[in-house]
Each structure stands twice: as C-alpha cells, then as structure tokens.
Design a protein that fits this description.
The complex is a heterodimer of chains A (about 110) and B (about 230).
Chain A (H helix, E strand, L loop, with lengths): L1 E5 L9 E5 L10 H8 L13 H5 L6 H12 L25 H5 L2 H4 L1
Antiparallel strand pairs in A: 1-2
Chain B lengths: L2 H26 L4 H13 L3 H14 L4 H13 L3 H9 L7 H12 L3 H14 L4 H14 L2 H14 L4 H13 L3 H14 L4 H21 L10
The chains are: A alpha+beta (about 110), B mainly alpha (about 230).
C-alpha cells in the first residue's frame, strides 16, 4: 500500500494523505511469457490433405449383364456334322382302338 | 407423422432396400467380382470403411485387374489411417498418371515422404495441370515444408482455376503474412472470412494484418503532423 501526499488547492500548506490500494493482478510465472503474449502472432491456417476424387472413382457395375454373359459363354455349343444326323421318327400314333381313352370309356357306352 | 419423420422413414427404408439389394446380390453370386464391388461402393458411401475395404479386397481377389476395386480399397485404407498398406495397393498400378498415382502421392505425403510425393504430383500436374485437388495438396505440402515460393505459385494457379477457393486464399494469405505484406494479407483474409465466416484463423489474421497496417501508418506519420493533434 502506498500513501500519497497530495498538496491542497489554494496553497495553505496542509497536505492531505490518501491511501492507494494497488489493484490485484494475476501472477505470472514467467514475465517473458507475458511479454510474448502481448504481441499477437498470426495463426497458421490448416491445410488438410484431401483425396475426394479417389472416393468418387469406383462406379457400380451392372452385374445382371455380367451374369447373363457368363451364362451364355459357359453354355456348351456342340457342332454335329450333317452326315451324323439321324432322322428320328416319332413313335406311331396308337390306333383308335388302342387309344388310352378306349380303355377308360368302353365302346358300348360311347355307342 | 411430420415431414422430418416421413423423410427419415423413407431414408431408412431406402437404406434397407440398398442393403438387401447389395447383400443378396453377393449371396446369389458369391464369385462375381462386380457384386462384391457394388457392395463395397455402397458400404463406402455409408462410410463403413472397414467393411468396404474387405468387400473391395474380395472383389480384387476375383478380378485382380480391376482398377476401380484397387482405387476403392486404397481410399478406404487411407480413411482407416492404414497409410503404408494404402501405398502398397496404389503402387501396384505403376507410375502412369491417373487416380492410382494420385493415391500414391497422397499416401507419400501423409507419410511425410515429401520428395517422393512431389515427384508423383509433378507427373500428375503434367498430365492434368488443372487438377484442383492436386494443387490443394501441393499447397498443403508447401505449408508443411515451409516452402513459401511454391505455396504462392500453387495458390495462384488454384485461384485462377477456382476464384472461390479458400485453400488458395489461405495459401496466399500465409505467404503475405510471412512476407509482412500486410495490405495483401488483409485483402486475402477479408475474402477468406467472406467465403468461410467460421474460419477463426481468418478473422484472427485479418485483425493482425489490419493492426499492423494501422501501426505502420501511425509510425510513419508523427502525431504532431496529424490533423487535429497538437
């Protein structure tokens, strides 16, 4: 605490004393830090490394096309020479009397 | 049900449809590289990086020539911070300009192998001089190596291509601040905060630049010569 002696106005010779209480200030561990902090420095900008184009690169493929192509390619194609071909005749049609329905529906009923 | 809830339900329904579609395609065609690739891309877009990387790997197993699967796998590994593995994957494609070389350059940069990264970026810039992402990464690398001259050069190129690029403006502001060109720094910072109002560094550096301009002005003109000051 400091005591100031203030000369009175008018020059009477009497001094007025006044108590001056200092304003408390936060204590700093290192005064040099306080000095450095008072001069503000630019803050570095952040420059992130990016690779967005890589994430956008793979595009979906149409797998139905792939599957159908695979099936076509996988299907075996057998080439048979013409001379090896046999004419396969269909089995002879049963006569009316031998027909299956003849056995189910007797002739007499039909008649 | 309000609009938000309806949108959420719709989004959830779309998500389930997408999941069912991709997983069932893989189950129905377990050896189809395309089915695994589609699933991987879907997982990647859902930011399921681990699962996406596995699906890309399976796709690559069935089709080792698939560039899409290789790039996708490398990108997922970068996201997972498995940088060395990503570098191995990208390096399989050789040094021809393209996405794989870009991935390699990014991996090298993240591994702080700056000289090799710069060589890869140079090849890329020769084939694609207007690649904004390459220029942005070169600016980032110049910031790390404190190479102001290159930072200025790449930033100016990027700004010419994209006048709204905050990366380019930040690069030029950094150079101006370092070189004590306060007027230029203030101009660039002013544009940065207009483009990105939440950029705290931009606001801080704008104030610093303006303070420096003001203090230089007051120092150059003695108080007595200023009008109104006796």
């Amino acid at each position: 605490m400091t005591i100031l002696k203030i000369p009175p106005l008018g020059g009477t010779g009497c001094y007025v004393t006044q108590k001056v209480v200092p304003i408390p200030r936060p204590k700093l561990l290192n005064p040099a830090v306080a000095h450095a902090g008072s001069i503000e420095q630019p803050k570095p900008f952040r420059f992130p490394v990016t690779w967005g184009t890589l994430l956008a690169f793979p595009q979906p493929v149409d797998i139905t096309e792939t599957i159908s192509t695979a099936v076509v390619v996988a299907a075996p194609v057998v080439v048979v020479p013409v001379h090896a071909l046999q004419v396969v005749e269909p089995p002879p049609r049963p006569s009316m009397d031998e027909a299956a329905w003849e056995m189910v529906v007797p002739k007499m009923v039909r008649r | 049900m309000n609009m938000n809830e309806a949108t959420k339900t719709e989004t959830k329904s779309e998500w389930i449809d997408g999941a069912l579609s991709h997983f069932s395609a893989v189950i129905a065609n377990p050896e189809n590289a395309g089915a695994h690739l589609n699933l991987a891309i879907w997982l990647q877009r859902e930011e399921r990086w681990d699962a996406a990387a596995e699906a890309f790997e399976r796709s690559l197993g069935f089709d080792p020539q698939s560039e899409a699967a290789r790039i996708g796998l490398g990108a997922c590994l970068l996201k997972l911070n498995r940088i060395e593995e990503a570098l191995d994957i990208f390096s399989q494609s050789g040094d021809a300009p393209g996405p794989a070389l870009f991935g390699k350059a990014v991996a090298l940069q993240l591994l702080h192998r700056f000289d090799e990264a710069e060589s890869a970026y140079e090849i890329l810039l020769e084939s694609q001089p207007n690649s904004e992402e390459t220029l942005a990464n070169l600016i980032a690398m110049s910031a790390e190596t404190r190479d102001l001259e290159h930072m200025r050069e790449y930033s100016q190129k990027l700004l010419a291509l994209s006048p709204q690029s905050t990366v380019a403006l930040e690069g030029l502001a950094t150079v101006a601040l370092e070189r004590r060109d306060h007027h230029a720094a203030a101009r660039y910072c002013d544009r940065i905060v207009q483009m990105a109002p939440d950029c705290l560094e931009g606001w801080h550096n704008l104030r610093i630049a303006l303070d420096r301009i003001l203090s230089a002005f007051t120092q150059s003109k003695p108080a007595a010569s200023m009008p109104g000051v006796k």
